[in-house]
Write a structure and sequence with these properties.
Length: 300
């Protein structure tokens, strides 16, 4: 019989399991490549708080069901120019994401609060990445304490080409300024094996042994008492805060809102394409000039 949890009230889009002092939190929209929407983000936030609160959990693993970790935000809704489900309240009484710069910034900050909880959890989070880890998926991964990827995973922020800048921009803290700029200036993606070479992820493995490697890392970490793991995590994260990590979250949300108002030709064309030919073709038109868009490291 499934035990009733304290915080995790709904599991439509996120599955939650505890085994041997490890909480496994799984994005569960495989048919949608585990893309993010408001419902999923709220459930994910509850799952993280639940895992952090459970006495029999020392380590948390974040993963995605199916072939992908997370392909970003669900662009079929308002985030991508489409329409969300009709709310059960009078929406005219509340902020609209597209009304003003401040309204957009406010919505991005509320969204950010749901995911940045990863930084404040006392327990370490391992993110397992297979398939696509794009846009909002990278926000989740780079907020995690450790990222382990499949060799053939594809990691990047293609939306940087015409849609905005990452609202949770932690690229700098993983790869330094030059690689962070290189990835965002082009919106290219990098394979898991090469992401490990530049420090974007801790390590990468063949896809068929990824589960085993992540489980072994989680098992090893779980043998350390939760209080000691918490001391280690908080010591490092507090040093990142002194480097400006928490302050940067406020600025990156605001800069993304500003970028949404950009009137450059590629941004304007993308909006027009969404309206005229639909999202799928708009994304194709956006990305076509960049070829395969895969970072290719030198053999040295």
């Amino acid at each position: 019989m499934t035990q009733q949890r304290k915080w995790l009230k709904s599991t439509d889009m996120v599955s939650f399991d505890v085994r041997d002092q490890v909480a496994w939190i799984t994005l569960n929209r495989p048919d949608k490549r585990n893309t993010l929407n408001a419902h999923l983000l709220k459930e994910l936030n509850q799952a993280f708080i639940e895992a952090d609160n459970l006495a029999d959990v020392n380590v948390i693993v974040l993963q995605g069901e199916g072939r992908d970790f997370c392909a970003g935000y669900d662009l079929t809704g308002s985030y991508g120019g489409g329409k969300d489900e009709e709310p059960e309240f009078d929406a005219s009484q509340y902020r609209s994401r597209s009304a003003t710069l401040d309204d957009d910034c406010w919505h991005l900050e509320q969204q950010q609060l749901l995911t940045s909880v990863i930084l404040d959890l006392h327990k370490p989070v391992i993110c397992k990445v297979q398939g696509y880890c794009l846009a909002g998926g990278t926000d989740l991964a780079l907020l995690s304490d450790i990222v382990i990827a499949a060799d053939d995973a594809k990691i990047g922020f293609p939306a940087a080409r015409a849609n905005g800048t990452p609202p949770t921009n932690f690229w700098l803290y993983h790869v330094g300024p030059q690689w962070a700029k290189r990835m965002l200036f082009t919106g290219d993606t990098i394979m898991g094996r090469d992401a490990a070479r530049i420090g974007l992820v801790l390590d990468a493995y063949p896809a068929d042994v990824l589960d085993e490697q992540v489980a072994d890392m989680a098992r090893r970490m779980s043998k350390v008492d939760a209080e000691i793991l918490s001391a280690h995590k908080r010591a490092i994260n507090l040093q990142m805060e002194l480097m400006g990590a928490k302050t940067s979250l406020r600025f990156t949300a605001e800069l993304d809102a500003r970028a949404h108002l950009a009137q450059g030709p590629r941004r304007v064309q993308f909006r027009k394409d969404v309206a005229d030919v639909g999202l799928k073709q708009a994304l194709k038109n956006r990305d076509e000039p960049f070829g395969d868009g895969i970072v290719k490291l030198s053999a040295r």
